[in-house]
Amino acid sequence: MIIVGSANALSGLDAGWEVLAAGGSALDAVEAAVRVVEDDPDDHTVGFDGYPNVLGEVELDASIVDGSTRRTGAVAALQGYRHPVSLARLVMERLPHVLLAGAGAGRFAEECGFAREELLTEQTRAVWRAGLEAASSGGSLPEQLSQLVRMSSDPEHVAGTVNVLACDGSGRLASAASTSGWAWKYPGRVGDSPIAGAGNWADDRYGAAACTGFGELAIRCSTARSVVEAMRSGLPPEPACERALREVVDLPDVPFEGAIMHVVALDRAGRHAGVSTRAGTQYCYRTARDERAQLARRAVLERPDPRRG
Ligand code: ASP
């Protein structure tokens, strides 16, 4: 049994571990861990008190994958409900669909009995307003939001996501991702977290992987699925992550500095890794040997050598 997550999953990992230790499923464990982070008011990149879009609306993306069946559920651009990971799970379990977006996702949350609430706090609203004023030189919102969004979208400073992967006592794998996406994003922008295979994937036969970082790139490169495919081809988690990230940094229109992407991976043997295109990032894990969740350093993807064409 093991549970693995992005560094910001640390606050929820022990809750996920308790589920596994009590004989619960990997699916229940990843959901439990992510819910803790979604509730955390100090994490402004996930769930309650997440940074909003350019209009000041918190829009949440999340997905969950059951590695035994490869069933998945997801919600995107959800407003007004704080546990998108649980709603994603209900999409998977109750609907003949995989992904609900926007007003439809909100309607489903209502049907499922989720409590509607304002997710933006006064403190985060102030940060949003300050960022907006800096980007728009103090003026009012322009009609061309697209201009403003370009100015204010620096993925390194305004984004984040929680990833959790787990393997339970029966060898079943599951994965979950949840985020408020890029702060000051264009309304309706959807990142990689709710896109199966892009930001999140699990398959009991090979392993599980999930991403944080520049979601548009993970969508273009199907990064989570690529990591799992690399493990399928026999690679351990770390080189599997490197192979998938290599696809991202090789995109011809994206400079290495702009290819900000971090992945975590877990294979069916319980081996795990975190790899990033940036130095100094971490991930976390917990096994039966650990008294509590542990932080570990992510390996860093080497910059391509320009002399090798
Ligand atoms: N991947 C997320 C997104 O693009 C943001 C992040 O993880 O930094 O929405």
Describe this structure in words.
The longest helix has 14 residues, at 26-39. With 309 residues, this protein is α+β, with helices and mostly antiparallel strands. It has one domain (2-300): 4-Layer Sandwich (Glutamine Phosphoribosylpyrophosphate, subunit 1, domain 1), CATH 3.60.20. It has ten helices and 13 strands. The radius of gyration is 18 Å and the shape is globular. Bound molecules: aspartic acid. Aspartic acid is lined by residues 155, 159-161, 179, 181-182, 191-193, 199, 212-213, 215. Residues 155, 159-161, 179, 181-182, 191-193, 199, 212-213, 215 line the site of aspartic acid.
Topology:
Elements: E1 2-6, H1 10-21, H2 26-39, E2 60-66, E3 71-78, H3 84-94, E4 99-101, H4 102-111, H5 122-135, H6 145-152, H7 155-158, E5 162-167, E6 173-179, E7 200-203, E8 207-213, H8 215-221, H9 223-232, H10 237-249, E9 261-267, E10 272-276, E11 282-287, E12 294-297, E13 299-300
Parallel strand pairs: 3-4, 10-13
Antiparallel strand pairs: 1-5, 1-11, 2-3, 2-6, 5-6, 7-8, 8-9, 9-10, 11-12
The protein binds aspartic acid.
List keywords for this structure.
binds aspartic acid, globular, alpha+beta, five-stranded mixed beta sheet, eight-stranded mixed beta sheet, 13 strands, Glutamine Phosphoribosylpyrophosphate, subunit 1, domain 1
